[in-house]
Amino acid sequence: MKQANDFLEETKTLHKLISGLNENEFEKTTLFKEWTINDILVHLHFWNRAADLSLNKPDEFAEMIKEFFSAVQTGKLRPHENRVIAERGYALMDAWLDLSDKLANDYSKADPKQRLQWAGANMSALTCISARQMEVWAHGQAVFDLLGEDRKEHDRIRNIVILGINAFGWTHEVHSLEKPEVMPFLKLLAPSGEEWSFGEESKTQCIKGSAVDFAKVVTQTRNVVDTHLVITGKDAKQWMAHAQCFAGPPEMPPAPGLRKKS
To answer: What is the mean pLDDT of the chain?
Structure first.
């Protein structure tokens, strides 16, 4: 699966950014829920471990998720992740990179259609590794913002765009919104300059702009008003105001201007 290598390249991009930090800087606080860089790496490593077990050791994955749901029910999810992943700083970064490399190798050989257990609904191996890329890209954005760096984007962001499109129905369901019969038309410009179109062409319900801006909206790393997307139509505006390509309870994007980078 090409997506396995895309995930690894996304991981290496974040790794390169933080590899020059000193140990104390891993405790810097980002604008994402006041998580530190350590918190972000703990979260990414925890769910990479889940993806590894789901593919290779489903019985152990079932036990891991049982403990996860217990932590969710008691409101102790973050402490649970921090307890399971004990490393911090460079030790954490190295463990995260090593497992990411293993994960990419294992998923590259997997059947893309293989069904895997997950914390929510079961998913294909293809969707699982694409979601891992989405997570490292989305959480990595908070670190790039914190350190004042711009990330060089690549066309592998198409995997994240696809997740956002596939979550059109989910976005409406999780936010208790009526789902439109037809998804708004998307016309997006890839980092390479290639033009990507999705859905039935329409001038009354459409979203146009960069694929990167669209990905930032569906991953909720930016409020839609802080992007250059051109949105036409009630359905398109409603989708972009609530877009959520990740599982879990309903979440809303950051407030306008909060994570805007000038």
So the answer is: 95
* Domain membership flag for residue 262: no
For tokens 């179109």, name the residue. Answer: 197
Q: Which residue's entry shows tokens 């973050």?
A: 78
Q: Answer with the one of 125, 149, 173 that is the final residue of a domain.
A: 149
pLDDT score recorded for residue 79: 86
Q: What is the number of alpha carbons within 13 Å of residue 25 lying toward its C-beta?
A: 11
Q: 184 phi and psi, to 5 degrees?
A: -55, 150
**DSSP state at residue 232:** E
* Residue 52 to residue 141: CA distance in whole angstroms: 24
Q: CB–CB of 236/246 below 8 Å?
A: no
Region for residue 235 given its phi and psi (left: phi exceeds 0; alpha: psi -120 to 50; beta: otherwise): alpha
Provide the whole-model pTM: 0.96
User: Long-range contact list for 27-33, CB < 8 A, 24+ apart?
Assistant: 28/146, 29/146, 30/142, 30/143, 30/145, 30/146, 31/142, 31/145, 31/146, 31/254, 31/258, 31/259, 32/139, 32/142, 32/221, 32/259
Are 145 and 182 in a shared domain?
A: no
At 13-69, the pLDDT tens digits run 999 999 999 999 999 999 999 999 999 999 999 999 999 999 999 999 999 999 988
pLDDT per position as a tens digit, 100-152:
999 999 999 999 999 999 988 899 999 999 999 999 999 999 999 999 999 99
Residue 127 lies in a domain: yes
Of the candidates 139, 133, 70, 68, the one whose C-alpha atom is nearest the C-alpha of residue 104 is 133
DSSP tag of 67: H
